[in-house]
Amino acid sequence: xxxxxxxxxxxxxxxxxxxxxxxxxxxxxxxxxxxxxxxxxxxxxxxxxxxxxxxxxxxxxxxxxxxxxxxxxxxxxxxxxxxxxxxxxxxxxxxxxxxxxxxxxxxxxxxxxxxxxxxxxxxxxxxxx
Length: 129
Prior knowledge:
This protein has helices spanning 6-49, 55-68, 74-83, 87-128. With 129 residues, the protein is mostly helical. Helix 1 packs antiparallel against helix 2. The longest helix is centred in the first third of the chain and has 44 residues, at 6-49. It is elongated and about 95 Å long. The mean pLDDT is 81.
């Protein structure tokens, strides 16, 4: 039994319209994807050709490279920042990190003692009232 009649012709017209617009959306999506890939290639080439001039530029370029690769830019940017520093600044940074690691527990103990003393003072004042 062949489907004929105004209802079936309307359904066929709607299906043809949907098919035409689906092809249009697919072509637009393909063009956008091609444009994005070209922009990523150009940005990557620009980032590779640029020579770093300091720690900020090194960190920025490393972060951009990581974003273009689809990775988290934080760690590469930190590594780029350190690689752009002078030897004297790197040594000062290492000394600062070592001191922070050594003095961190001491500062934590001092903070805990200060909190205990503040708690004791508050308890004594509350007991007087």
